[in-house]
């Protein structure tokens, strides 16, 4: 029996905690992967209640698990077939991380197409193309694992940090090179005092979760590690925090940190200091 095949390419860019997916424009040199979901007795399936789901088989590609899911949805009395491309991590990465892309089809239109083709089987398919540097490049040595061992030369402690290494490499020139030359069995980095393994974990948290995990106590150490390991996004978030009203670090200390890592921010804080001095002088004159 032939089946009617719906090849739907999601017009969408996903920038979540892993890598960029270009699902609408194909690079002829890129390596793509495909997941599919076949629904037999389609006319019976679409009669099921709203919320009914059917999941396709999983495909492990680029360090992630991919699968398609079909589900019945309804809006304004019109029933739709939802098609969802889901991408999930394994248990070693942040368990809260996931991404997906969706598209919807009007069920009556699909049934008309099936009836005109005298078929009752539908195959949903999605092709995804990870773009460098975010995708896991094939034929470039051992695959990247999802655990990075961080060693402290200060107290000789070490910690296994859960991280998607493709994502980390995409945000750091240092790790992009380091993870390519390292082996899956012995992937580790060392840090020196006053930085600690805890500070490294905070840097990863900032990369994944944003600058709300920063505070007056950890921002300098996180900034130092971000600068050392060339994680520019985290560095930018640290500098932004230093310039915000949430940062209560003494102005002169803040100025010292800023001038070490960012000239523009240092000049901005210097202007704030000068403005504060002029205000204090004006207040003194007013009292005399």
TrEMBL record:
Keywords: Signal. CDD domains: BTB_POZ_ZBTB_KLHL-like, MATH. It comes from the Eukaryota. InterPro entries: BTB/POZ_dom, MATH/TRAF_dom, SKP1/BTB/POZ_sf. Residues 145-216 form the BTB domain. Residues 1-26 form the signal peptide. This is BTB domain-containing protein.
